[in-house]
Each structure stands twice: as structure tokens, then as C-alpha cells.
């Protein structure tokens, strides 16, 4: 991987410059590079016996699966395991044990890396004959010093070879495994450095798990630029506020719910973080109230939103300024460099500006496909380009997403996009955040249920919220059942856990209060 070669260059030029902070563990570029060398030697010692898999690896490649989360050893192991010609698979330790075991049986890696021997994957891996390294074992302690060696320049033919297997959630319990080429991430890094003006003095903080695409890419962006990357464990708003208050974070990469949580935490506190000069949001729509919260929290920051997907990488980018906020905030911006966007109907015909259809793109950044067949997969490639099934329209080059794949429900005979209802609720200015779900119903087919987080400084009634929605959506789209809560259940990446909310509604969970 190109970042691995860049890392060696940064080590030679600036070995004492800070590279990485994971919790309390801090490493400079010299220390990180020495750790990578030790990991490289370990992976190169693995036998090259061909394992029988349902997918092909490059010649002489070894497949390493890492299931560590935000363990302080994750970075060195990921960088080394993904260096040419090898391939790395990143497993989310937050997945149910049974799902992880099914994934392991399909991947059959040459090496599995776990935090400890008590991990539920350990016994299965040994049964399958997979080599396992546990980070709590004394033999995996890192020596104090190691010599440096020159990394060979990757040849052009390696560009189209795979280096990363990632897992993306789907509608089934079995995650989809997508595979990315070296070229796709190399070009993503080149374009992102151009778009976000990354440089070595821009320390980046990305809360949440490095197993998730947003934080993982932010890590590689930082190391590629020779900057410092900072992260902690699972998202915690108090930890985030403390990190920002230290004053050395210059760039923050988040999902919008983290901004909302920080704003709620900062209420009635004189909290501002003027050292932050850039905020990058992804993973969900960045709304007007998020913009207003950023203006309060980060008065010196340039704000960017980008839209993408695990399978597509970057699709569009939306720089938000006081001058463009009114016409830009409802969109996800213009096409990312190197990406061509088109909107097409069900027959593949390209649609004119302002007309909604399926979002297609031609891009060198997209993945190479899935490793195993999944009938529910939304990612498709055909003569019109690639799509994940999202619906939207273009207007003067700006893309607006009107519905995510699988985000439409039929309620009382009406086709309703949940994202449209969520936007309408947020546009009222009465709430901090909203999630709308389609719950199975014998009469309506699916009934609309909204869960909202009210602003702390004002009372809220159902009638107030429904009345305030009417200028934005039709009556048939206004949820009849509305709950309030103060603290959202979150995934390891900091996004709102929608499946948990569905379960809470079914269980009449005490955290939900009928409005």
C-alpha cells in the first residue's frame, strides 16, 4: 500500500514527529515504522501454502484478518498486512460472535490477530488450522529498536490488485465483504489531500472505531500527509470534549450525531474550540442545525460534508460557508474529483436536472465487488456505471439525495421516504435530532414512528411538532406516533443504531417516552 511506503519516507525525514495517539499510547514516526518492520517480518514468515477459498488472492499474497478494534497495535498491523502483495481483512469486534465466526470460515485467513486468547474466535481459528497471534502474549511485545530498511517502490501492475477486504452491514445478518484495489485508495488519498488541503501540521481527531471506513480513511489520510492522527475507544462525548480542549487538534472527522452530542454537552457551558480549523462530516446528512452547532463550537473552522459509501468511496463533497449555506445545505455538493455522476430512470435513461432517479457514477475509486454472493446487495455495476441504489437529482451540478437504498416504506398506500420525513422534522427547529422508522402494522402496512431528541431549552408537544412539519411535507407523511429520548443508542462508528431503536419500540423500552 502507498501509505506504507510514505511512512518509511516520513520516518527518514522526521522520525521524532508524532504520528499516532490511540488512547494513552503515543508513537512518533520512527517508533511506528519500527513496529511495522517487526509486523512485516512476522507476516513474511507465514507459509505460502494455497488455502482453498472461494476467491482469488494475488500471487505470493498472504491474507491477514485483524479483529482488534481501537487497540493501540491496530495501526502498525493494518499498514503492514496491507502492504503489497498482501491483503488485509478488517473485522469489527462489535459484531455478534456467531457472525464473526461465519465470516472467519469464509475468509480462511493465513493469520488472525486477536487482542487475547479468550476471544470467541480463537478456538474456531485453531480448529480451522488458522495461525493466531494474540496481542496479550509476551512474544508479541515490541522491541525498543530496529534497523530501518528501504521499501521497494510498488510497480504499476500492483495497482489493480486487492489490498483490503472490508465488511459492510446489509439487510441480512451476514455482512457483505467488499474488496478494494490499491489504485482505488491511492487515488482517493491523492484527491482527498487536494480537496481538504491536508498537510503535516494538521493533527486529525476521528472519534469512534478504526474498523469503520470514515475513521480508517482519516487515519490513512493523516499518515499519508505526515501528520498526527488521534483517536480513542468507542465514541464518548466527554472524552471528545477533553481532547478538543487540549488545543492541538486542528482537524475533526465525525458523523453528524457526534456534533449534535457535543452541542448538547456544551449547552450551559462556555465551550468553544478555536484551534480546530477544519470539520469534516460524513456517514449521514449534515443538516442546518449541525451547521449552526459547528458555528458555535468551532468558530475558526472550515466545514466540509462528503457523501459516499463503503463500496463507492467518495461520491461528492460539499464545502459549506456562510455565503453558500442557504442553497448548499440541502444538497451533498458537487462530484468529487475524478467522479462523474448521472441520474437515470429504471431503464437506464439519463434524466435532466431536477428530476429524481437512481444515482450512478463512473469513478476510479469504487470497489472491485463482493467476495461472496448476496441477493440483497445494492451495489451494482453495469453499462451506466456503479450504484448502491440511492435516489437523488442533480441541479446545476449539485447532487441532492432524496432517499437511501431501502429507505422507502409503503404506509396506507403511500410511498414515503423516511429520510424526507426526518428532514422535515429537523427543519422545524424544535428538535436536535430525529429518526423515522417504518414499523410493521396490520392496518397501515407500515406505520411511521418518529423518535426525536428535543432541544433542552424549550418544551415540546406532539401538536407543536406536527403543526411545524406541515409546511414541509404532506399530512400523510407526518408520523402519528412520536417518542422522545435524551441519549441515542450508537453504533461503534458513532451513528444512531436504528435496529436498536426498532427493538426498543417493540419492547416499549423505558428510554422512549411517548410525546
Automatic annotation (TrEMBL):
Domain AMP-binding enzyme C-terminal: from-to ranges: 420-495
Domain AMP-dependent synthetase/ligase: from-to ranges: 7-371
Family annotation (Pfam families): AMP-binding, AMP-binding_C
Coiled-coil intervals: none
EC numbers for this chain: 6.2.1.3
Database matches in InterPro entries: AMP-bd_C, AMP-bd_C_sf, AMP-binding_CS, AMP-dep_synth/lig_dom, ANL_N_sf
Single GO molecular function: long-chain fatty acid-CoA ligase activity
Keywords, ordered alphabetically: Ligase
Family recorded in the similarity comment: Belongs to the ATP-dependent AMP-binding enzyme family.
Protein name: Acyl-CoA synthetase (AMP-forming)/AMP-acid ligase II
Species the sequence originates in: Gynuella sunshinyii YC6258
